[in-house]
UniProtKB/TrEMBL annotation:
It comes from the Bacteria. Residues 180-280 form the Transketolase-like C-terminal domain. The lineage of its organism: Bacteria, Pseudomonadati, Pseudomonadota, Gammaproteobacteria, Pseudomonadales. This is Pyruvate dehydrogenase. Keywords: Pyruvate.
Amino acid sequence: MIATTAHAAQLCCDALNQAGHTRSSPLHTVMSMANTLEASRQAWVIRGQSRSRRVGSWPVWFARKTAEKPLLYLHSAVSSAQLCALSTETAQRGILCNDIETQPSAWPKGAQPSLPLWLASNPHCTPYDPATGEEVRAIVLAGLRTLYIDGKPGFYYLALHDDDNAVPLTEQDREDALKGMYPLQRDAPGDVRLLGAGRALEEVVQAKRLLAEDWNITAQLWSCPSYTRLAREAAAAERWNRLHPTAPRRSSHLRECLAGNAAPVIAVTGYAQPIVDPLAAYVDARFVGLGAGSVQASAPSRYWIAVSALSALAKDGLIAAQQVERAMKRYSLQ
């Protein structure tokens, strides 16, 4: 008997939960989950390059499908054109996992600049740039529930890297990660707030260390698996508030996370800066967006992140401008 889509997805979730997991990199976590889903026989797991986009080049059992089952597609898309073709062939459904960041490339994060912009502008796509395997696990399980049990339209996209940053997540962390951001230490004070996504989070963590050791500046750390989801929800709340001026105002996860604090916010991505810039409109504090090309061709280094934080504090009159100059010299950025 062929299981219904929702039942198949629930069986997939059960299989993943029963299999357990060890903390690993985002890439290895997805590979392990793919193996479990294949063994369950309740999901389509496709492993291949996005260059093989014709349905005829896919497994016959997928090309001749008669009912939808959960889809996990492991691919390597370099450009928005490749990703657009791939999402079209999958009817803009499924969980698409891109490992291009693990391969040699002249592009930051292995992707042409058009790819993250296409993701951010595609209303059918919920894009994530997870930093850890724990985040990946939470996102894939949420994707199975949202797309196939709840039956909501669209597809999930995950950018994968192979750095093993083991950060244990509480249940609250998992829920907040799905919404776009969560604190690495809850209720921790900070002179500045540092946000990071994907592989760039490690440089943010090291920037916090530099600020503390070299300049006696404390920093809150936030992991942001989806800047795009944060910006979309904040924009939707703002639009609703404009259309309903007499109703109680709606908030957003971004505003709730950063409310009640005037400390500068430094948001870092391995993609180009336009991926984080939309957040500025919804942050009630000094906001600095950093991405590939902002201060150097690649993703911002820990030294540039630290200097950017010091510069934001100086512009708010909280430290002397001379400290920024000293930091530039100390880190050989001049």
